[in-house]
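Team,

Forwarding the record for the chain on the shared tracking sheet. I've put the sequence and predicted structure together so nobody has to dig through attachments.
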Amino acid sequence: MKKLLFVLFCITLCAPAMQAQLQTPAPSPAGKTDQKIGLTDVSVEYSRPSKKGRTIFGDVVPYDEVWRTGANAATKITFGDDVMFGGAEVKKGSYALLTKPGKKSWSVMLYPYTSSGWSSYLESDVQPVTVNVEPVNLHESADVETFMIGFDNLTNHGGDLFLAWEQTYVPVSIKVNTDKMVEANIAKVMGGPTAGDYFTAANYYYAEKKDLKQALDWINTSIEKGNEKYWVLRSKSLIQAELGDYKGATDTAMKSLEMAKADNDSAYIRMNEASIAEWKKK
């Protein structure tokens, strides 16, 4: 009897662990699709229910009611840059994508994404995008069995986000400002190193005790390009001191100290005060 009780006790202890390890396939498995449109990254995370012999639109998914656009949680779409979504301006970031299916057209709505349940989005208003429904032409008369979100008609300047299920295909145009991004990249590359690049290079040479005169030239160039920050001046003072120019290092540190005080940065205040006291003794 004692042995039986011991076995039952062990089974009771192990049961929670056994349950935690048990995994079964989800009825509507999670899906994710990533797409670069021009230079803009767009990703979609959603759940993919299947038709399973049912009538979907007008039955499982009623017409003229808000749908989470998949199963489980609301579909999440993330834009890496500002875009035009269905003709509406949308800022970069993550959004919950909800829809209101209709027989001939759908309303598509984007809400700033939160971790709350999908129904919480209905408490706020957004301006919906209206798009027309098109027939599916994947396999002649065959239905799309599993709900699908993807991208089509890609160019350097845009493409379509499409929703497809059963015999319904709903495309939403996405336009990106590739020209503006490319021109900005060209200007940056052709303009040469930035103030931050010169600062980073100078810090590396100082840390590795390489050509300190070159490091000083670089950090002066960084400052000339508008990067006269107290942490940059702090680095310059250290390079000057390493080169034996203690007067110059002290003058630079004094300027850094005043700027650090104005910004109430106690760490840089202490470091500059300690260095100034040390260099004045040289």
